[in-house]
């Protein structure tokens, strides 16, 4: 059930090619699914073509999504997750292993690959294997077999790798298996037990139990110390820290990179663009936030919206600014959505009892474009963080040769209209997870077309 290879000609668009470090007016031709011609226009031919209209970019890559299959298909299936990816402009996604059963041995990987094939979606599904059996934190999973089966990394995400000796062994084994990264969710559980919201003014006023930055910073410090030790014996060891959210954690990674440690990291759209004041009912971007949402008329939404409960929690504006800064200076290698669909049942409870996570695949582009529109992030960097950045983390395990607009390659493209906005509604989301704090809000950059592996993955109804 696979669609035909795409034939497509788009003239007078704005091309963005992060691999070439280039953007500008241009045209593309796709024949039989192959990106046959990429033509950059100049002088008179380029008149009137700007970055505010139709944009063509390489298909996005998400290094961190939760697709919930097997085990929680009410929240998402591989098929609906891949449809959400295509709607968001993603042509490759990497599923996290916190399914039920956990992806801790190759047969679970075979199951989700079969589900992807049965869906007929051309979006590429890759996966992380669990670090420990059942993600229980006690015993290393079948790391060698999982590496042979093609996983892109190892993670107990949802939970940190609690035991330092296990982290040490995992870094060593995975490092010896072709340099696959250990992808850690950095959290020190003894500091976050029972925590509900970022420790600070908003949590205090709302009466939510504080989640200190130290809960993340200390875990990052431990992980880097273990990595520094392991890498002396296993030069292939690699650590990737996912969804970092504090200024201090990002500074630790910045310093570690400067010292040559093989560490990479990512940030999410929500941690760089939302702040904890959204819990009070504010709905303005992080770069517009103040220290006191109660003082300046910013409160427009209901307080305690459980769609905002996420791990790590939404932080204060200084931390959000640090996420953006890390993206700008390359400390953060990629943007990941941490797409975490949940059923309504799991979110329609008190704030502190709600499941953690935001359904984010379909809104990532719009959120990043808000930062672009505000002059906080160059378009080329935003697209780079969704393409060439995550590609560099995949250790050659994608079927795609590159993340740019290279002539002669299978077409992996997204076409979006920056002049068109769309309203985020439950019906507009292909994901089963309607748990988005952006419901009711307008985003710019409507995706018109997503082509994955030379085939049509998404087409806007009226495109
Ligand atoms: Zn996580």
Structure, described:
With 463 residues, the protein is an alpha/beta fold. The protein has a single domain, classed as Alpha-Beta Barrel (TIM Barrel). Helix content is 27%, strand content 21%. The strands form four sheets. A seven-stranded mixed beta sheet has the order 3-2-1-4-15-16-17. β16 and β17 (455-459) form a beta hairpin. α7 (214-233) runs parallel beside α8 (247-258) and α8 (247-258) runs parallel beside α10. The longest helix is centred in the middle third of the chain and has 20 residues, at 214-233. The two termini are 23 Å apart. The mean pLDDT is 96. Bound molecules: zinc ion. Residues 157-158, 185, 243, 311 line the site of zinc ion (ZN).
Concise account of the structure shown:
The chain has 463 residues and is of the alpha/beta class. Helix content is 27%, strand content 21%. Helix 4 crosses helix 7.
């Amino acid at each position: 059930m696979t669609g035909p290879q795409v034939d497509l000609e788009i003239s007078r668009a704005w091309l963005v090619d992060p691999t070439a470090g280039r953007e500008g007016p241009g045209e593309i031709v796709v024949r039989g699914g192959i990106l046959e011609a990429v033509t950059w226009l100049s002088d008179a031919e380029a008149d009137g073509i700007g970055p505010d209209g139709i944009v063509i970019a390489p298909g996005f890559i998400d290094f961190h999504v939760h697709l919930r299959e097997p085990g929680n298909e009410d929240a998402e299936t591989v098929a609906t997750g891949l449809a959400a990816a295509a709607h968001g402009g993603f042509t490759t996604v990497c599923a996290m292993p916190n399914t039920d059963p956990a992806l801790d041995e190759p047969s679970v990987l075979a199951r989700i690959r079969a589900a992807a094939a049965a869906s007929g979606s051309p979006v590429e599904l890759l996966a992380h294997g669990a670090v420990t059996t059942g993600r229980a934190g006690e015993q290393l999973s079948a790391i060698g077999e999982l590496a042979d089966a093609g996983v892109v990394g190892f993670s107990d995400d949802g939970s940190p790798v609690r035991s330092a000796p296990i982290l040490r062994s995992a870094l060593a084994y995975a490092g010896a298996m072709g340099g696959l990264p250990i992808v850690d969710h950095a959290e020190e559980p003894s500091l976050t037990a029972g925590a509900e919201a970022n420790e600070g003014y908003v949590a205090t006023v709302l009466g939510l139990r504080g989640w200190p930055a130290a809960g993340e910073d200390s875990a990052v410090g431990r992980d880097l110390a273990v990595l520094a030790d392991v890498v002396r014996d296993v030069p292939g060891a690699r650590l990737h820290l996912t969804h970092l959210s504090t200024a201090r954690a990002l500074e630790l990674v910045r310093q570690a990179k400067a010292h040559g440690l093989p560490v990479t990291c990512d940030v999410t759209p929500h941690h760089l663009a939302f702040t904890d004041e959204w819990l009070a009912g504010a709905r303005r971007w992080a770069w517009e936030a103040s220290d006191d949402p109660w003082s300046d008329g910013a409160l427009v939404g209901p307080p305690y919206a459980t769609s905002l409960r996420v791990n790590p929690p939404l932080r204060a504006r200084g931390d959000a600014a640090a996420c953006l800064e890390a993206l700008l200076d390359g400390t953060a290698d990629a943007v990941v959505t941490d797409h975490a669909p949940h059923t309504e049942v799991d979110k329609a409870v008190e704030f502190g009892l709600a499941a953690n996570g935001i359904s984010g695949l379909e809104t990532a582009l719009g959120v990043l474009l808000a930062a672009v529109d505000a002059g906080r992030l160059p378009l080329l960097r935003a697209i780079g963080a969704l393409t060439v950045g995550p590609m560099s983390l995949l250790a050659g395990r994608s079927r795609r040769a590159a993340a740019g607009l290279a002539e002669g390659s299978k077409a992996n493209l997204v076409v979006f209209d920056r002049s068109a906005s769309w309203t985020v509604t439950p019906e507009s989301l292909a994901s089963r997870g309607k748990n988005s704090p952006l419901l009711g809000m307008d985003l710019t950059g409507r995706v018109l077309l997503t082509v994955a592996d030379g085939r049509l993955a998404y087409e806007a109804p009226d495109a």
